[in-house]
Each structure stands twice: as C-alpha cells, then as structure tokens.
Amino acid sequence: MWNKLAGIIVEEPNTFGLNNPFLVQGSRLQPKVTPSPVSGPAHLHRLAGKCFSLTESTYKYEFCPFHNITQHEQSFRWNAYSGILGIWQEWEIANNTFTGMWMRDGDTCGTRNRETKVILLCSTSSKLARVSEPSTCVYSLTFETPLVCHPHSLLVYPTLTEKLQREWDEAEQARYDSVITDQGYNNLLRDIFEDAGLLKSQRVKVNMPEAEANSDSHNSLQKCKEASIYIYTKV
C-alpha cells in the first residue's frame, strides 16, 4: 500500500516536521536544541519557514530549511518510528563556497546523535530530492532549488560585512607575505565565519591571566591587540 507513495514530493506549511499524525499528542517530537539563526546567502533566507516532504518506501522525510529534518514511519504500528534527524546548526564551507548545510543534535542513535548534511543543487523547482544514510546515524539529503543555479549563488565572500571582508583580505595578504602559516590562515577564516554566524563558535573566552599564559592561541591579527583572547576548543 505504502509503496504507491514512493517518490511523492510535497511542499508543506511550516510545521517543522513535528506533526506526525500517527503519534498521540503527548508523544510529539522534542528537539534537544534551538536552531541556529538564519544565515548565509540572503536569497536563500526565503526558504525559512517552509517545509518540503519526500516519501520513500515506508518513510516520510520533512526538511525545513534553517530549522530541522524529521523522519516518520508511515505505519499504523503502535511503535512506528518518528524522529529528528538533525537541527539546523551551521554551514559547511570550502574554497569560498557554501558546500552544504549541517543539521546536528538529532535524536540519540547509540552513543551519538543523528546528524544530516544537506547538499544544495540547481533545479527548476524547490524540492527534497533524495535522502540516504551513507553511514550509521549520519544522513545525506539532496535539496534541489533554482535559488542556487547562478554560478555565484553560493559564494561566501559576498555575504560578509565590509569589516569581515577586510579581515579576510588582511588574512590573504598575511599568508601571501608568509606572516602566517596555512594553518594560521585557516584559523583566521574560521574566526571570520564564526563572527558572521555561518559556523557554530568553538571559542571560549578566558580571563586575562590565562590569556597571557596562552598568547600563542591568538588567531586574528587584530585580536592579538585585545586584552582577552579566544582559545579554540572542540565542541
């Protein structure tokens, strides 16, 4: 019966995937964290507040850009699975390009939380095209939209403020002049992207005595002159 639904794509109101009709009201999904603010290319912000559905086999997937991804088993079994595959957190960036959206902190899956990488591809309409699970508890989702068809639609530099663009320019010059290493350059870029709200912050502010003891942890040309520094730690 449910196989007849395979491949159906539907754009739905912004219920954010938490409205599985097969769950009783008290069993609705409970997100672990709050989604990050909307960020990235301004022309993609119009996707916020919308949801896109895809039914494959016996599962319905709902992708709500800048909010979450959910999975609902289309079954009347008393214990039909319904869960969160990830909540919007940050962009994946490489070579001045937004290469994906990361949805993390989904439902518990063994010793980890479920997470999903969303890949954006050009198409004539906005739709959730494919969902796969390349490794346990890590999902890959392909979202097609005409909003990324322009060759410059996913460039990072134009989305930054003038101040952050200047910092990037200074970092480029510092690397060219061999003032900083490639690793230092990458740290500077991460600092810039975090300040822009494109990446989740991995910085912890420390007091002045600790800052003096860890002066090598400075990763910004301007922040080296400040009274406090940021030390990168693994989230």
UniProtKB/TrEMBL annotation:
Matches recorded under Gene3D superfamilies: Mannose-6-phosphate receptor binding domain (2.70.130.10)
GO cellular component: Golgi apparatus
One Pfam family hit: PRKCSH
PROSITE patterns, sorted: DMAP1_BIND, MRH
Entry-linked InterPro entries: DMAP1-bd, Gtb1-like, Man6P_isomerase_rcpt-bd_dom_sf, MRH_dom, OS9-like_dom
Domain named DMAP1-binding: residues: 156-235
Domain called MRH: residue spans: 49-151
Keywords, alphabetical: Disulfide bond, Signal
PANTHER family (UniProt xref): N-ACETYLGLUCOSAMINE-1-PHOSPHOTRANSFERASE SUBUNIT GAMMA, N-LINKED OLIGOSACCHARIDE PROCESSING
Descriptive protein name: N-acetylglucosamine-1-phosphate transferase subunit gamma
UniProt lineage: Eukaryota, Metazoa, Chordata, Craniata, Vertebrata
